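User: For my dataset I need records formatted as: sequence, then structure tokens, nothing else. Please produce one.
Assistant:
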Amino acid sequence: MSGRLILLCGLAGAGKTTLAKQLEAEGAVRMCPDEWLVALGFDIYDKVARVAVEGLQWELAQALVLRGLTVVDECGVWQRWERDLRRTWAQVHGVPVELQFLDAPVEVLTARIAERNRTLPEGAPRIDPALVAFWNDRIERPDADELALFDSPTERRPASDGLAVRELAQQPPEGAPVVQENEF
């Protein structure tokens, strides 16, 4: 018996958490590093804590999918090596694995982050909207060849709120940069 691993790739404001919560409502287990960091009292920009939390979530995700559950990993998987690691592990263990790439223009992402910050409760961690452009230069967007290595989504979900979901047959933007690691 095996579950399903769903990787959500995208920058802040792309809609990863929105989609992950929808999948959670359908029965998936959601792994959100930012929520765990806040719950444990860490700053969301604490790189050491983030690496530790993402590592723990990956270990938990592996155990859960092997027990037949669907797990949504919303850490962003910005680099190809991160996606390859998860995809290869899943395929070796006979676990279906899908990659959903969520993207939007920097201006849209920045506006979403600014609006999110405006509506957050007092004391909640905020993302500096200026970081979106910085991160946009560092994400390694999946191309069609990489997307073809993943399983198809179990069901198509319509994009909402202007959210652009690039799935298996769609191309990333031309000139997408290649980076080695997330920079927080």
